[in-house]
Amino acid sequence: MAYELNEDQQDCLQELINVAMGQASDQLARYLDTFVFLTVPNIELVNGHGLSSTLESNTDSTAVVSQGFFGYEGIRGEALLVYQHKDSDRIADLLGYEPGELSVEEQLIDISSILTTTFLNVFASQIENQMSYSAPKLLAHTQDTVSDYIKQVSFDWEMALKVNINYQVTDYSFNCEMILLIPAAAIENIKMVIDRILEDY
Q1: Orientation of helix 48-56 relative to helix 143-152, angle to 10°
Q2: Is 149 within a domain?
Q3: What is the chain's pLDDT, residue by residue, as a tens digit (201 residues)?
Q4: What's the CA gap between 10 and 4, in Å, rounded?
Q5: CB under 8 Å to 189, separation ≥6 — which residues?
Q6: How many domains does the structure of the chain reveal?
Q7: 186, 77 in Cβ contact below 8 A?
Q8: Which domain holds residue 51?
Q9: Which of 62, 102, 126, 154 gives 85 a disulfide partner, CB atoms 3.0 to 4.6 angstroms apart?
């Protein structure tokens, strides 16, 4: 399959993500003044049906925040931050907000932007790239709405590279899931960047 990563490409991407996660975890820990644990990411190629199944698996979520990202050399995609009800209640404490200072919706958007941009900026630096971002959007709490929204984003979702990362903030017992979706056209661009990195070693 044209979009499949070979073993060397997969290993290289995994290592880039691991390094980015380590640096992002350190930056987040300093910002939040607590320990941030990131689980080993899951990377897989999914088709349109698999993408729908991914969104369906998050029907228990209390909120999903989506934010588009755009880099040089055609690297782009959509980041979804998925929260459960018990975790969304802890965000004010995590960010140091006073009660009533911001709505829960505004808090979700704030923490989502921090989590998304911290990881992706570090990842971009690993491949000598730079990211820009669309404004984060809080989506309704249903799978249909999230699925419809993704379909409306102007990417070809026939195939997508999906990266799952779980954030765990230990002092606050806070967890959330970040799902990076990289559309078909951008997969080829990422493979070219990875091949260039592999050639240097």
Answers
A1: 140
A2: yes
A3: 567 888 999 999 999 998 888 888 888 788 778 778 777 788 888 887 667 676 666 556 668 888 999 999 889 999 988 887 666 667 777 777 777 777 878 888 888 888 899 889 999 998 889 999 999 988 865 555 677 777 777 677 788 898 988 888 776 677 788 889 999 889 889 999 999 999 876
A4: 9
A5: 73, 74, 75
A6: 1
A7: yes
A8: 7-199
A9: 62
